[in-house]
Amino acid sequence: MGIIKYISTDQVMAQHKAMGTHISLQIYGAREDPEKILDQTKVLIDHFEDLLTVNRKPDHPRYGLSEVTRVNDQAGKEAVQVSSSVYGLIKLAVETSRENFGFNALIGPLVKLWSIGFQDARVPSDAEIQEKMKLIDPWMVELNDDDHTVFLKQEGMELDLGGIAKGWTADRIRDLWRAYGVEAGIINLGGNVLFVNPCPKRANGMWTVGVQDPLKPRGENITAMMIPECSVVTSGTYERFLEVDGYKYHHLIDSRTGYPVETNIAGVTTFTKNSVDAEIECKRCFFAGQPIANWVNDRRLGAIYVYNDERVEKVGLDY
Asked: Over the chain, what is the mean pLDDT?
């Protein structure tokens, strides 16, 4: 699986590239051969990418494997049956989108209009934005629990699970590792981090994680935390943006307005028990623009807000 490196007799690292990002995996001790486990992990990641991607062109040899692409191709025409696991993820994404806090799995047409982070990025007209807003309504998705079909009711609608797929995949990798008896590990899907089981290097089982300083190069932290096993995900404005006439338009588009959300927050990092929750909750916290009352619970361990003036605010995480 890519490059496998033995750090010690019981610590093995591997690199892989998939899901549009660089993936890093670390295993600390296991019942089975760690190389076998990492090979199986690669197969699992590639399988889920095949099922969930919407970024392949029709001439791609594996284009037809994406169940999400098949749903999009039939928008406005007919319902498409998908596998049970993909249906569960789509249902979670759509129902979360209907909460209308900013996360929207149907936002693809609007994101492509702005294209922030790509060479064709531009500031569209308000008329263009309003036209695309007609195609991002999560209530225009018909879900059938009996036969696991998904129907996008209007032609031009697009389902994109990119805002949730990495977290869901990380949780499935954790399931695989636990089945193989992995003592502990770190799953890093391009910045989506999931710590598996207690840290074997410390008696208290705590892991160390840093929070990126938004004004400095990647890898330089503004703060660091000791945390139990959990997932860590960040949403921020500082890595992808378009600058026009001295004004920066970041890539986090608010589906309620059609424009990048206006906020004093540079980034929010959330800590949750499951990685798919971290994906959702970091967006909930970011779009809220401030800490949410009574947000911490058994699944949501805490959050760190970093503001544009570099002020840091911690919620929960009382370890």
From this structure: 91
